[in-house]
Amino acid sequence: MGVVTGRKKPPTSQDVARLAGVSQSTVSYVLTGSRPISDGTRARVEDAIDKLGYHPNSGARTLRSKRSGVIGLMVPEAEADDGVLMVFIGEIAREARRHGYDILLVTAQEGAGGIRRVVRTGVCEALILMELGRFDERVGPVLDSGLPFVTLGKPEEFPQGSVVDLDFEMLGRMIVERAIEERCDRLLLFGAPSRKRERNDVSRFLDGIEDAAGEEELEVVLDTGPLAEVPDRALRLTAPNERTALFGINGVRQVLFAMAATGALVDDTRLFIALSGEDLVDVSPLLASVPQVDPRRVEISELAVRELVRLLQVDGAGPRITLVEPRWVEG
Amino acid sequence: MGVVTGRKKPPTSQDVARLAGVSQSTVSYVLTGSRPISDGTRARVEDAIDKLGYHPNSGARTLRSKRSGVIGLMVPEAEADDGVLMVFIGEIAREARRHGYDILLVTAQEGAGGIRRVVRTGVCEALILMELGRFDERVGPVLDSGLPFVTLGKPEEFPQGSVVDLDFEMLGRMIVERAIEERCDRLLLFGAPSRKRERNDVSRFLDGIEDAAGEEELEVVLDTGPLAEVPDRALRLTAPNERTALFGINGVRQVLFAMAATGALVDDTRLFIALSGEDLVDVSPLLASVPQVDPRRVEISELAVRELVRLLQVDGAGPRITLVEPRWVEG
DNA sequence: TTGTAGGCGTTATCAC
DNA sequence: GTGATAACGCCTACAA
What sequence ranges are listed for the domain HTH lacI-type (chains A, B) (predicted)? Predict the structure, then answer.
């Protein structure tokens, strides 16, 4: 067993055909299933296939059929990531495989040009765009590529692609309701609000908040200060006998820790409501004592892929919006 | 501007040739640069190319040349990820693009079969394997695929592929030295040691520790308990007038927070040494006060890609091991 | 139910 | 320095 330098040439459908005693096209038909095949031949072909360890050549298949079996996934810059991204990406890759597709990474850094490239060269036959902004430069190239696509995150203008996202408006309402149930006088929203105008999810969330808080006796405070000092600021806002709920779409971990550090995680003045998730494993013991909403990232990832597969495979399938409802995590 | 349903067919090199008034093969030669072309024709061809917005068809190119321009990246399961993975992946994707390659995700879940698939179908012309175990089932299929590959993480037996990784042995020595410099009597290693036999990085790290601690007056304790209680256990180990250093390859954030929560981050009895990194952005204020080692993930990612490109493009290039030295982060 | 054959868009080997 | 031309491996009308 020496050093193997050259790989031996992989078998072609021609080889399979020869071994099975049929024509090359029959092999192809067995594979694509686009024509009825008698049980006898099918069996012989399949035998030959795994006797040779045959896999259809992707380049040839793509060239001929225009379908590469590859979905382009445009991921945002990872700077300051907290592990959330990886949950989406991993789940998307897994679900894609279940449907026979592979995932090709396109970094947001490449921008619109990156999209044009993978589209024109034909590497990808469909796209998933993550963390879409309200007005996103990537939408243009995607639209005139004509490729089916799904966005995670709802863009401002409804595009010709499908959308899968958390129902942030409902999330807003849920938080308000919970705060009231827990007899809070005030809801402090940390972190995200400062970027309100840039991010679609935040603005929808705030819509939900306003909607639900409008007729209630709940004061809503948008906190834009440093996350580490959120608990302190909350305390200062809270008069004796009052209670303040704390929630944020981002920065959950930081604030959670700040709460814990000051021993304020469970007291009467402040109630921390957590946007939970798989990325928070390292603080999970802390989470046990507070109410949690599940942002359902796994479900969103799966739905995104399934929706794309639908656009690809069901003909006449039009784009649609799917909003996934947040869920309270049972303690 | 109505609803655009059909995408118009992209231009081929044939179209470019026609527009430039040359033969199709000339266009190809301009693109690949595998034959000298006069400046005049080159200019005309390039004009035609961007007048038409031409991009070579990837399927055809792959079919003909056996080079897909795609690198398969095998990522580990993301369960309990802390954001580290995304740093690697993002950086690898970026660096790959700089060299003209794209990254295709292969989840570790697919295991050896996944490798066989991307190899046999010809989607990938090279592979990067992340978080390789000491004895990894994926190495087999990769080896007999004959494809060039790079592993992030040094496997037990030296394979025919290249290796890029942090120099964990040196890391071990650095930690011991620092602990001694800081006049610690004891080094408590949390988290990782329990899995010593499974992970190559951990065992190399411990080798370095033993190597450096052997002749010194430093007691080394392998802590396998819950991370949240590490500071407490450290305290219990520490007699009056003694000092204990704390370090771990994993679980940095948890222990860091536990230290902060008990106000022990900067005291005389315990010294926390952090394995720093981009994933810890959300605790960065806490890091300011402790010594930090940079695990150099960005550099490792870049080197992995460059190494792979070398294997692909420099002929006769053999595999080699590259260990990146950890660095103290200057405060 | 199965076989024959044309062509997808490149690359690279011949010729000139 | 440039132009024809033969594959690459597969899909899919068209025949039988």
Answer: 11-65
For residues B144-160, one letter each, b for 16 or more C-beta atoms within 10 angstroms of the residue's C-beta and e for the rest, the string is ebebbbbbbbbbeeebb
Whether A86 sits with its Cβ under 7 A from any strand C atom: the answer reads: no
Task: Tell me what pLDDT residue A4 has.
Answer: 45
**In 3D, which of A118, A151, A114, A117 has the Cα closest to residue A135?**
A151
Lowest-confidence segment of A63-67, A264-268, B181-185 by average pLDDT: A264-268
A33 Cβ contacts chain C strand, under 7 Å: no
Residue closest to D9, CA→C1'?
A60
Helix axes B230-237, B252-261, angle to 10 degrees: 70
The reported pTM is: 0.92
Stated in angstroms, how far is A150 CA from D4 C1'? 45
Phi-psi domain of A113 (left: phi exceeds 0; alpha: psi -120 through 50; beta: other): alpha
Strand-pair partners of B132: none
CA distance A24 to A27: 5
Interchain contact B35–A (C-beta under 8 A): no
Q: Could you write out the three-class secondary structure of chain A? A: CCCCCCCCCCCCHHHHHHHHCCCHHHHHHHHHCCCCCCHHHHHHHHHHHHHHCCCCCHHHHHHHHCCCCEEEEEECCCCCCCCHHHHHHHHHHHHHHHCCCEEEEEEHHHHHHHHHHHHHCCCCCEEEEECCCCCCCCHHHHHHHCCCEEEECCCCCCCCCEEEEECHHHHHHHHHHHHHHCCCCEEEECCHHHHCCCCHHHHHHHHHHHHHHCCCCCEEEECCCCHHHHHHHHHHHCCCCCCEEEECCCCHHHHHHHHHHCCCCECCCEEECEECCHHHHHHHHHHCCCCEEECCHHHHHHHHHHHHHHHHHCCCCCCCEEEECCEECCC
- Record: contact A281-B80, CB cut-off 8 A: yes
How sure is the predictor about A3, in pLDDT bands with cuts at 50, 70 and 90?
Answer: very low
Query: How far apart are the CA of A209 and the nearest CA of chain B, in angstroms?
Result: 26
Nearest to A146 among B4, B122, B282 (CB): B4
Cα gap A122→A62, rounded to integer Å: 8
CA gap B147, B126 in Å, rounded: 5
Sequence-distant (6+) residues with CB within 8 A of B214 are none
Nucleotide nearest B14, from its CA to each C1' = C9
Q: Which nucleotides of D are covered by protein (CB under 7 A)?
A: 1-5, 7-13
- Rounded, the Å distance between the CA of A23 and C1' of C3 is 6
Which phi and psi (to 5°) does residue B221 adopt? Answer: -120, 125
Q: Where do the domains of chain A lie, and which CATH numbers do they carry? A: 13-52 (no CATH), 67-165+297-326 (3.40.50.2300), 168-294 (3.40.50.2300)
Q: Residue A1 above 60 pLDDT? A: no
User: Which segments of chain B have a pLDDT < 50?
Assistant: 1-5
A7 and B118 in contact by Cβ < 8 A? no
The radius of gyration of chain A's CA atoms, rounded to the nearest angstrom, is 26
